[in-house]
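Project standup — Tuesday

K.O.: blocked on the structure for the chain from last sprint. Re-posting the sequence here as requested.
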Amino acid sequence: MRWSQMFIPTLREAPADAGAASHRLLLRAGYIRQLSAGHYSLLPLAVRVRAKIIGIIREEMNRLGGQEVLLPTMHPAEIWQRSGRWETMEDVMFRVIDHKGAVNVLSVTHEEIFALLAGELKSYKQLPQVWYQFQTKFRDEPRPRAGLLRVREFTMKDSYSFDLDPAGLDVAFDRHRAAYLRIFERLGIRAIPVEASSGAMGGRDSTEFMCPSDAGEDLVAYCPDCGYAANVEKATSQLAGVSDGPGLPAPERFDTPGVRTIEDLATGYDAPASRQIKTLVYVLDGKLTLVLMRGDHPLNEQKLADATGAATIRPAQPEEIREALGALPGSLGAVGVSGFPVLADEALRGRRDMVTGANIDDQHLRGVDVGRDISVGSWFDLREVVAGEPCPRCGHPLELLTTIEIGHIFKLGYKFTRAFNITVLDTNGERVHPIMGSYGIGVERSLASIVECHHDERGIVWPLAVAPFSVVVVVAQSNDDEVAAAGESLYEQLGAAGVEVIIDDRPERAGVKFSDAELTGIPYRITVGRRGLADGSAELTDRLTGETRKVALGDVVAELTALLQAG
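H.V.: unblocked you, prediction finished:
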């Protein structure tokens, strides 16, 4: 390939709104261009990298026995209505109406469609099955950001396993976990497997693969000592023991004029946040619910959704709260409340001598015994872990890492095979529902994550396995016939040796060519110029280390071939 003929529109400066390194560099290096918010065109260099990523993923999926398929991206609405996700995924779903008036969905994901395909299976003898595809997903993201990291249209490798029983699913899950670790290692992405929530996908035993990066938007609680890692939606920690006094025989009301926050109560009324009961009011699937937390503990809403199984969740509005409890936020409590569900975080279990709102504006209660004075209907782990808390396994202080989610695997269970009444005959001749697992990797997000992991002040530094080209031959003086001929000769020799090579034959200054070679991240550069030709040599530059050394013209192909094989 010739640089002069290839479409590589490099930029000297990145657009002002490109904050993440991958966004900035992929624009500057001519890999992507934005069409609209969350929609990007992949240009020739990006298509080559994308193909390498897909090739690595495909090899590992085939290695675990996966079979590649390709399913439609447009689905009849009725399928999503049957699965129950027509409402629960409404906020990210693109819906289209055809000329007959039928409503269709652009694929948010493909669990439903794969489950329907499994209707072709008849017997346990056909199990297990692992099917996968590379297919476009559409999600109406409210805030697309950071280039390819959060978009509205993207390619996903999604695979689905079908097994006769949970033991078989466990095997499929573990094999996918191992395959994903191999994939990310080959892609050059640091991947931390973390415990996670399955969210709207449903199921259990969910593992996300997270890449630490300042460009990420997920927080992971991580222990550098023992390796414990969990998304904050799932993470726990050890809590220091609390010694409560005997408290009072009954709650005692006291005036708290102007108190609206945990801090107000702590500073003015000798009520440390750790001794306060914070009362939050949520609407879960349309039902007003009180959620109790220790005053110094933040609620994680995804934990609340997972614990309750609520499909819709939102904070109650002030007018709803006033009507239900008689007071506004700042003076709320659950003492004596019986008309609404009361959920409490485990950190409050057994606590005495606590302070909480009295459900009268500007008044609170002291001496509250949670077990005696509050009718808690359910206890859950609802609090969000914060940095520095002890690891639940070893007690070492936890770190909070900002990460990019690059893969997600989870055990779907029977949710979709039951929804569509998919059955097979088991070993006893009885009809049973096969059990499913779901496993996803975002292809373009992986591409961007590689850049987040591999760049410097000069541009992208592609790992050899995914680089668009392995070598660029730079003709330093294109207007010199002898130099141009020597560059062409090396270009042809490298191509004949099976090396993925591009020659920069543009009539540009050598400095411009060097800058573009560094910006685009090609691993090795061979520079052919007048000075080198005088002593029969070329310069070999390693993009990663920046090291440049002379190589005899006759040895260039052998040197590079050895480097690429060691790769």
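K.O.: great, moving the ticket to review. The longest strand covers residues 399-413. The first helix runs from residue 21 to 28.
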